[in-house]
């Protein structure tokens, strides 16, 4: 069995998912894949089930009814991966905004001792491709805002290309993660930071999606802005630390 699981949430990703699965399956580290599909009406899940037959034991699907949010999709995937015994668990987009070839570099960073490795657009060597200037400014400004409020030493706190060591996910009380949109990405990093884990940043090139429709919305942006303030205030009084398992 592989020690590494890549979680990919999907909603209407039929243009991308077959190519993405084939690409991840071709990588030398032997990654396993869990697709968490929120009832895509375009047949994404049917494509995944076909790939499960092509790659038995390596491609898996968790199907949910309705759009339940990015954060809950990942948390469902985390719980599944921990239960199955994976040591390294990844977050990655379905639309090739994240280059699957970079999975190995995130793996190496965690294998060398980081609790979390973040594929970063805003460290030396990282960059953005095919993004309009206003979106670049919004994203970079959000990163500065998050660092100012949380004091996290992370240049790209909104990044969604991440590798976690198993012990980090076990240490975080996932029931205390409040946010389901892109603020989820910030909150998971804040939880790991609050619990004392080292967060490494690995430079990547982030490419805007070519196929399909972006999931970004004004509601997601509002959640991220207000959510950072809320999680910082809660951080003064509460911890994300999970209770120790009972005997």
Automatic annotation (TrEMBL):
Transferase in keyword set: yes
GO MF annotations in UniProt: dolichyl-phosphate beta-D-mannosyltransferase activity
Stored InterPro entries: DPM1-like, Glyco_trans_2-like, Nucleotide-diphossugar_trans
Domain Glycosyltransferase 2-like span(s) in chain numbering: 6-171
Gene Ontology biological process: glycolipid biosynthetic process
Keywords of this entry: Glycosyltransferase, Transferase
Annotated protein name in UniProt: Polyprenol monophosphomannose synthase
Record organism: Phaeodactylibacter luteus
């Amino acid at each position: 069995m592989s020690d590494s699981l890549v979680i990919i949430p999907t909603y209407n990703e039929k243009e991308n998912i077959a190519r993405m699965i084939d690409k991840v399956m071709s990588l030398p580290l032997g990654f396993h894949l869990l697709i968490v599909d929120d009832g895509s009406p375009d047949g994404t899940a049917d494509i995944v089930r076909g790939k499960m037959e092509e790659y038995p034991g390596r491609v898996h699907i968790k199907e949910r009814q309705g759009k339940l949010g990015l954060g809950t999709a990942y948390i469902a995937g985390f719980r599944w991966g921990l239960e199955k015994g994976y040591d390294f668990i990844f977050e990655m987009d379905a639309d090739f905004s994240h280059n699957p070839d970079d999975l190995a570099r995130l793996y190496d960073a965690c294998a060398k001792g980081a609790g979390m490795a973040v594929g970063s657009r805003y460290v030396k060597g990282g960059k953005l491709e095919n993004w309009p200037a206003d979106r670049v400014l919004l994203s970079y400004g959000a990163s500065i805002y998050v660092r100012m409020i949380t004091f996290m030493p992370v240049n790209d706190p909104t990044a969604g290309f991440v590798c976690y060591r198993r012990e980090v996910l076990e240490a975080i009380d996932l029931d205390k993660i409040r946010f389901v949109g892109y603020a989820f990405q910030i909150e998971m990093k804040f939880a790991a930071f609050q619990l004392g884990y080292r967060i490494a940043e690995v430079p990547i090139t982030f490419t805007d999606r070519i196929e399909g429709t972006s999931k970004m919305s004004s509601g997601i942006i509002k959640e991220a802005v207000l959510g950072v303030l809320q999680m910082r205030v809660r951080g003064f009084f509460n911890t994300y630390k999970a209770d120790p398992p009972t005997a």
